[in-house]
Specification:
Length: 189
């Protein structure tokens, strides 16, 4: 593709970016980082820093850095994507919320629990508006927030998140296993 379209063509760069999945599956994370950086450099040059395809590559780098344990770099990537998506798509767009959720998970992992809680609350409110209270992504966010509350010892808040999640999962088709998992958690709380 590079010979036909050129190194800087968007389709060539997308192919380079997609190769990261293959390398990641093989555990070759250093190779994935090289491919992502190459794709990012080309995307920024060809499409601009704030183009959705460029932001997709930045988000992939954030995921990669999280997997590598480079959490500060992951945070930097997620914050960039969040800022650009919020500007371009809005505060409650599902893509913006997905990035905020990734950042919430990262903050939880970093022990920045106040920041994690803020992200999860934002995502939960946005997903309830955009997708409804019983959508599986909304329920998963409520579960994540419940887990965070449990970790912080806020048991009443934990129950307040887990109960609606459990009830929602009970109504969702194909989520019998998730329902059982949440039931066990509720018994532990």
């Amino acid at each position: 593709m590079e010979k036909v379209l050129g190194r800087g063509h968007a389709l060539t760069l997308n192919t380079v970016n997609n190769l990261d999945i293959l390398y990641a599956d093989r555990g070759q994370l250093d190779e994935v980082e090289k491919m992502c950086r190459l794709a990012l450099k080309g995307m920024e040059k060809a499409l601009g820093r704030d183009h959705t395809s460029t932001l997709h590559v930045v988000n992939n780098l954030g995921i990669l850095y999280k997997r590598q344990g480079k959490l500060d770099k992951a945070e930097e990537m997620y914050l960039r994507v969040l800022e650009e998506r919020e500007k371009a798509l809005g505060h409650d767009h599902t893509s913006t919320l997905r990035t905020a959720n990734n950042l919430g998970f990262l903050y939880r992992k970093l022990g920045k629990l106040d920041k994690a809680e803020g992200m999860y609350r934002w995502v939960l409110e946005g997903r309830e508006k955009a997708l409804g209270p019983n959508h599986t992504l909304t329920l998963r966010t409520a579960n994540n927030l419940g887990f965070l509350y449990r970790k912080r010892g806020k048991l009443d808040e934990t129950r307040g998140m887990y109960r609606p999640a459990l009830e929602g999962y009970a109504k969702a088709p194909g989520y019998e296993n998730g329902r059982c998992h949440l039931s066990v958690i509720l018994l532990l709380v």
